[in-house]
Amino acid sequence: MNFTRSFFASVLGTLTAFGLLFVILLLIISATASIFNASTGVKTLSDNSILNLDLNLPIVERPPVFDEIQSLLGLEEEVLGLPNIISAIKIAAEHPKIQGIRLRSDFISSGWAQTHSIRKALKDFKSKDKFIYAYGDVFTQKGYFLASVADSIFLNPVGALEFKGLASEVLYYKDFQDKYGFKMEVVRHGKYKSAVEPFLENEMSAENKFQIHTLLNDIWSTLREEISISRDLLPKTLDAIVSSNKIAISQDAVSSKLIDGLAYEDVFDEKIKIRLGLDIDEKLKKVSINSINSTKESYDASVKDRIAVVFAKGPILYGEGSESIIAQGIFVETLEELSKDDWIKAVVLRVDSPGGSALTSELIWRTIEKLKKSKPVIVSMGNVAASGGYYIAAGADHIFADPLSITGSIGVFATLPNVKGFLDDIGIQAQSVKTHPNAIGYSPFQTLNKSYEQQMISGIENIYDIFKERVVQGRELSPEAVENLAQGRVWSGKQALKLGLIDDLGDLQDAITLAANDLDIQDYNVIEYPKFEDNLENMLKGITPSLDVINPLKNLMPEQMMLILEGNQSRGPSPYIQTLLPFELRIH
C-alpha cells in the first residue's frame, strides 16, 4: 500500500515538475522575444523594395494579438487582420523605398465589404505613381475583383478565372422537418413574408426573391462599375462576358481583356524586375505586411488623445461575450469604461454581425446612448450589420457602411426547436404534471401551447415597436418611413445611404478620420477594444493543436440555424425572441 502511494506521489511530482518547467521555458522564450523585439525597434527597408501582399490567408476583422512567443516562432502571419492589411498599403504608398506591390488574391477569404476596403486602399496606392502587379494560379470572382485594380494582371497558363455574376442560395427545410420530426416552431408578426420562411415553406416567396434579386443587382452594379473603370471595359461588355459564360479557359480571360497575359510565377517575377529596372538575376526585395507595419510606430507615448475602436464581431447572444460573440457582459463593461476615460476622445464601433438576441441588442444600445453623452460614437459597418447588428448601430452619431455591406433587416421573430414528431416516431412520449394550465410554458417535446404562442407574439410586437422607435430616434426618420424600410428587409450599403439608414459610404479608416476631424485633433493614438485577458490557454493558441471537440451539428446544419440554436441556449429572459438576419445570405 505504501509502495502504491509512493509510486503515484512520484508520478504526480514528476508531472508537476515537467509542467512548471514547461511554463518557465515559455516565460524565458517570451522574455527573450521581448528583448529581441525591443532591440530591433523600427525596421528599415532597402531601396527598390516591393510590398509582397499575399492575401491567400484567413483575413479577420480585428488584427490578431500575437504574443512574443508566437512572433519568435514565426506564426504571426498565419492570420491577417484587415486593419493591418490596410495599414501596410497606406504606409507603402508613402514610403520612398517601396516602388510597387506584388499582389496575390487567388482565393481571398475576406467578405465583399472587406475586400472592397482593401481595393480602395490599393487604388489610393496607385495614385502615388506606384505600380501593382497581380498574379494568380486561379482567380475566384472575389479575388479577381480585387486584382482588377492592378496595373497588370497575369494568370497561370493552365489556371482559371471565375467571372459569372452573383448568386445566392437559401436552403428550405419544411420537407426535412416533416420527414424527420425535428422542426423549428416559428412565431412572427406582421408582414415578415420572407422572415424565417425557410422553416415554413419549400420554396422562396416572390417577396424574398425580389429583395435578394434587388440586393444582388445593386452589389453587382458596384463590382461592374469598378472593374469597368480599372480594365477600361464598358459595363455592357462585362455583362455580355458574364451572360455568354465566355471564360472557359485561361486564354479566354486574355482575349476578353480581363487580364493582361499568361505566365508562370517565375516569369511574372521577372516582369516585376523589368519594371523595377533590375537585372533578371537580381533578387526581388519583398517586404511582408508585418515588416512594412513595423517601420512605423503604432503607438506614440507622447500623444495623450486617443480614439477607441470597439470591434463587435459575430452573433449577438446573452452572456459574457468573446472575440467572436457579441454579448452584454464584456461589451457593456467596455463601453462604460470608455465613457469614464478622459483620454478617449471618441469611440468608433466596428460592427460585423447578423444580429441575435433582442435583449442583448437593447442592453448594448442603451449603453451606447449613455456613452454618447460624454463623447461621440461613430459606427463603421463591416460585411454585415443587420437586424441586431443594425439595432446597436442605429443610435450612433454617424454611421458609415461600405457599398457592399449588408444592413437593415429591421424585424423581430421567435424560433423554438420542437422534436415532438421525432420522439413520436421512435416511441418516446413526454408527460407533464403542472399546478396551472400554462405552467410548462414552452417545451421542445410537446406541441406549442397556444397561450404561450400568444405570449410570444405580444413580446415580438413590443420589441418590434421598440426596435422601430430606436431607428426613428437615431436616424431622425418618421415612423411611417421606418415601417416601410423595416419588415425584415435587407439592403446594401449603397441602398441604405439613399434610404437614410446610414450617413456615409466608407470604411473603418473613414470613421476614425471623421471622429478626429470633428474633434479637431491631428495627433492621436488608436486603441482597440474589448481587451481580453491573457492566460496560458490563449498563450498556447496557435502553437499547439486544438483539443476542442467540434460540434458535429455544424457540419450538418446551415450557419443561421446554428445561430438560432446557440441563441436558444442563452440563459437570459426570452432567449427565443431574435433580432437576427432571418436566413443565411451568402453571395458568391
Short description:
This protein is of the alpha/beta class. The chain has 22 helices and 20 strands.
By CATH, the architecture of the largest domain is named Alpha-Beta Complex
How many helices? The count is 22
Question: What is the rounded distance between the termini?
Answer: 68 Å
Helical content class: 40-55%
Assign the CATH superfamily of the largest domain.
Answer: 2-enoyl-CoA Hydratase, Chain A, domain 1
Mean pLDDT: 86
What is the percentage of strand-forming residues? 15-25%
Task: Please describe the biggest sheet, giving its number of strands, its sense, and whether it closes into a barrel.
Answer: 8 strands, mixed
As a whole number of angstroms, the C-alpha radius of gyration is 27 Å
The beta-strand count equals 20
Instruction: Give me the secondary-structure category.
Output: alpha/beta
Poorly predicted runs of 5 or more residues: 33-42, 67-72, 536-556
Q: Please tell me the total number of domains.
A: 2
Bulk shape: globular
CATH class of the largest domain: Alpha Beta
CATH fold label of the largest domain: 2-enoyl-CoA Hydratase, Chain A, domain 1
